[in-house]
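task queued by scheduler; priority normal; single chain, no ligands, no partner chains; default sampling; output format set to structure tokens
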Amino acid sequence: MNPVAIEHTTLALPWYAPGDDDVEPALLAEFTPRRAPVYPYTLSEVIQFGKEERIFEALTLENEFLKLTILPELGGRLYSAFDKLHRQEMFYRNPVIRPGLFAVRGAWPAVGVEFNFPNSHNAQTLEKVQCRTAIHPDGSASVTVGDLELVSRMAWAVTITLHPGVAAIDIETKLCNPTSDPHRFYYWMNAACPVWEESEFIFPPTTRRLLTHPPMDASRLDRLDYPIHRGVDVSRFGNIRQHFPVFAESMHEDFFGIYHHSRNFGVVHHADHRLVRGRKIWTFGCARDGRVFIDQLSDDHLDYCELQTGPFSLQSDYRLLEPGRTLIQRDRWFPVAETDGFNLAGRDFAARFDRAGKSLRFQPVRELGPLTARLLRNGTVVAEQEFRSAPGGVTELKFADTAACEVEIRDAAGGLLGRSELDTIFPEPDAPAAPPVSGREYRLGVYAEEQGRNGEAEQYYLTGAPHDPECAVAAARLAAMSGRSDEAANRLELARPLPPEGKLLRARLEHSPDSRLAPLLDTEALRDRALLEIGIGCLRERRFESAVEILSAMHPTGRGLALLAVAERHLGRDNTATLEQADASFPFTPVVWAESGSRRAVNGEFLLEAVCEYLNCRLYEEAYRLLDRMPEALPIAPYYRAWLADKLGLPVELPGPQEPWEKQFAFRVEEIAILRFALERNPQDENAAYQLGCLYAGLNRWSEAVPLWEALRERHRAAARRNLALYFWKIAGDTTAAERCYREAAAAAPGGRTLSEFSQLPGAAPETLLPLLEAGVKHFPRDCRVKLALARTLLAAKRPAEALAVMENNRFVLCEGKVAARGIFETACFALGDDAMKRRAFDEAARWYLKATEFPENIGIGRPSGNKSAKAYRLAAEALEAAGKPAEARRALDAAMAEGEWIDFEFFPLRNVVWESPEAGIDFDYWINLANRALAAERGGNPALAETLRRRIRTFRQHLEAEGRESSWLRA
């Protein structure tokens, strides 16, 4: 058996390069594409349509059965997994890299297997990540990709492995929080797969119910039966007429996947269902409103879906990854062919057990030796057959009677490889969410943190702090995480008695780990964290023997072992074994790279993370020397060098006049002292002032950012005024000051994001906005946001014909789930139709209303399968009646009443099952459309339909009123 071959190579692919990233920092999640925390990353929301060839760095793994291609420059994606035996691609090997607007930063390509941490379509999806290769003694080989994630300063590593003689891909994911504080995360491995009309989405037979939510809104849920829901086989792609995110409500077995019956080929995913609870399938559906996105993401227009797996059950499930913890997930993916599907799978095989056909088709991924298939009825063996099967081949067994039977597969030693389950396991009854009797504020704060709303979390904690010590400690922790040490210490004073977590935080704040933390070593949950802090204290005091003793007592972690290696080096000991152990614990630990003297390529931020670890230990000489290994010219690096030179008593060379430092933002708490030092030495350094302001705002310390930005007069003036506008609008609630700042930004050198935000500011006068936006469209001809802003402002200025012209004469690429372009198009048509009705030009009015039912795809949204144009059809019917055209009016009324070919889910609030969840989002357009359908049914002589719709509307109105929410908008 030949060892797995590994090769470093390149791959030439057609590539649609995104436009330039924004110069304006993403300081508020509200204004990011997916409303997720993104700072310090820039946003990339300008899509271009020019194609060129790009040479990508690539790594390949190949054995007898599979050839894998990994692209480190596309976020480490597994780009291709080619089944050599069946001559098929397992995943969606998009022949072109064509980004659409789907990621947390914007641009995102649909291709291969993507690794999402700590958000979906993460910030590094189009970035080069770190990678390394390994050849193992058993002949297997692996590629590991991963990197630091700058928002949280956590890290991820994914190891992709092939084994000799095994037709399966093993993927091990490690999610590591090396910091001293918890951070929000989830993880979804996202495997894109091509789909055809007869492709079958396969969950285990015991999965009887799926959960779904509206696209881009995880605050509402509904359940659907699987595989048949309301008469529709939802397991077949050809029956899905809408965007379709579905999750297994509960998993009793370890597999799911997809099978393409026209190709007699599919893909199986296998993982322990107790550890990998999330199994999701996503598709855009077969209607044009989905296929528009397919067209934006590809040149060959091939439909694809996504199979996703993760540790949590729903897309709304985030957790806090505890300090020092590494979460590990293990997945296996393998091809299956010529079995007509599968309903049973184990780690080493897939099979189709057909009770009606009295047969079993079995395909292994490796040589398993002699096997036995046993039929069991009520736990008793009623038949068995011995057989062998070659990897990739299919063995078919026939049985005399399979009624009410399960089948199990055992190896020669009697070991169980897999057992089918009768599809009689029903979901457990729903348990209503109930808030706790005590600790309510603390739990609400934790949930807000998990959702990335730290400002809201802090308010919950502060509310609970006077009577809940856990709240006081959590509020102190958030203050410490943003560099407000004095405030953190004051908040700890509210905690009586002080919980162990508070004692740990107090010791960190006071830099007195020995005296404060020794008692915590008896607390198993905090022992390792306390040992780490004591060890760091020893390094600070240069007590290296003590550091070795303390850090050696920890459970192995990458960070703890790396610091142990530092202490060993200072004692003149060989630390090679410790560094190897640290690297095995987590492969991308900055200090391990620094201590090993490695020349393996890393990025500058990775190196600065190692610098900061040395700073934390007050090992300034090591930090200073490490800057000499900087692999790229980061603008903040000279500031680190100057600050460290001062600490070491060396000549200080502050950065001289530079180009504006715009796109690589300061974000580490350690950089506050560094930038303050630069400004103390050189108050005229506008780069340092601007970046320090951005850093403060990124840490939710806006009041400290404001004076820094207000003082800027030359460099960064436009971006600084935009940042101030955000502050006045969203933090201070002063829209007058916000408008003034936006105008000053626009008069200087605005970016497209500035103009887009300005157009959404409440109270901004359209007449004065229009000249700025018209100039902006010329300056940013590819920026859809500016064109949308112009059209929106023309509508506000009561110039609908011009707004419509903007929409009709431009091409728009929208972020997933965004419908602004459609809303502008419809509103302009309605306004023109209303004007014609006032003039009694009824035929003209009908034409405008009917135009609102069109879906010109240049605006980025295709025609949906469901009727979303009831208002337009109803108004057209009224205009046609007034024009004396009853037959045409009747056709319009029928169209207004229609439901369409889709599954109309009746979503319930997530808070029904997660009490901490805020109130559910409302799809206003959906309910208004329903009201228009009801009105059309009344006019069209269909009282039964009208009453059915009115009943739904009444029920929803009662729900809103019970929650104290406004419902007067709910009308046609």
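post-processing summary
- The two ends are 71 Å apart (CA to CA).
- The longest helix spans residues 943-962.
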